[in-house]
Specification:
The protein has 15 helices and eleven strands. It has about 450 residues and is an alpha/beta fold.
Length: about 450
Amino acid sequence: MMQFTETPPPSLHQITSFPNLPMNNNNQINRTCPWPGFPTSKALGSFGDANCMEQLLVHCANAIESNDATLAQQILWVLNNIAPPDGDSNQRLTCGFLRALIARAANVGTCKMFTAMANAHANLAITTHKFSVIELASFVDLTPWHRFGFAAANAAILEVAEGFSVIHILDLSLTHCMQIPTLIDALASRPEGPPLVKLTVAGATEDVPPMLDLSYEELGAKLVNFARSRNVMLEFRVIPSTSSDGFSALIEELRVQHLVCADSGEALIVNCHMMLHYIPEETLSTIHNTNSSPYPLESSSPSYHRTMFLKSLRSLNPTIVVLVDEDADFTSNNLVCRLRSAYNYLWIPYDTMDTFLPRGSKQRQWYEADICWKIENVIAHEGPRRIERLEPKSRWAQRMKNANFRSVMFSEDAVSEVKHMLDEHAAGWGLKKEEEDLVLTWKGHNVVFATAWVPA
């Protein structure tokens, strides 16, 4: 989910130029209206609320999809004037979508105006920040976005690990094992003594942020040393595998090498933290597209990677599977539906940002670049390049049930642990229970869900 940059995203007002727009000597778009009957700069204040900006984005997306260069250009001019990258949270959110629509226009356009957009977009690329381990650990502690899942999952893992002398953790986590040190600390203080911990991770090949500035082998060595300092024996294993084929190489290696030893009294714990939505789902098809669009076709032809992955997990007979992800739906084949869904979810990180990161800080730059990367992937790309395919909790729950898992409730200790963590953050964060599941909220809106599953 996360991608960050050392420098703030470049200002569209400074680097983006469109044909027929009046320019001053600094190559900036003048704040005058180039079309008769279109609103002047003074009248643009009426466009400044979030609902109106969302509607403008929708109209712009429709214009780009229908290759209406004139209308797209007009709407982009308005958006460029009302959504500066250094404005309030809604303006910065809209600016991120503006950038993504320009990128999409560059991908699909056939007219000269869209070609000019492609040239401008070359300067809008988001530069990935590579984190040190300390930087990433500090970064995820800034907000409950990841800490919520860490706290809920670790509490569930500790409970099921009671009585086991060996626990094998299959860690499919977007945050590169940042959850594990806290878990090791807790295991070290078990009354019966710490277990042997086998930690297996997928060495994914995709450039999915956040990215580390060291290899997984180096990360593993650091974790082993940390565990040793807590008197915990840790075995670390990396299996090269990718989400694009449902981690099939990972599952196959576990079977062929007999790395899962459930029959010998070993607890197998599968920890899925914001990683499974990168596995292709049923709307993705790589059928060759014979029309003028550069994108592979998306159709109802199923690939079933998510279904097969969950069934493969079930065949391993895990002690518990903890599934944590963002509670949104980015899977629609329809661009406007996807845009609306993303706009009405991704306002949340922008809104929360002002509560914990000062303007101008490097961490804020990284955080906003992360969201811009996600927006661009959802809006500008199609086919296999569009990997941000979030599904809501309800759909994941049905998938788990179809794979012959049943949900289990988080204990009161787990709930207390999550509440204690939330007390360290802004008052807008909240926790609610939905049947057996836990949901992190911001101002009452669902943000991240945590679910726990065992074989049915």
